[in-house]
Amino acid sequence: MEYKADYKVPGGKLIRAAVLVEDGRVLRARVFGDFFAHPEALFEEAEAGLADLPAEAVPGAAAAAFCRPDLVIFGVAPADIAEALSRALGSAPRP
To answer: Can you tell me the distance from the alpha carbon of 68 to that of 61, in angstroms, rounded to the nearest whole number?
Structure first.
């Protein structure tokens, strides 16, 4: 099942998170919204790195995955992305 949430960062930027979960594990996580990431390929790599994790591990893993010295995110912080994912998963049933 796919779980979604919007999170408006204090100061105005919007993050949308969508997490596809099956049997308590993440199949896919997508993060998009009112921000830019450079290079985009590294942002997509960070998203892909969240796949196959237990759903409850995603917010903590996201904070680390999007906090890379070679990835620049304009408008939001890795902690904001983790919060958006956490909110999306907050609507997921617990195994």
So the answer is: 12
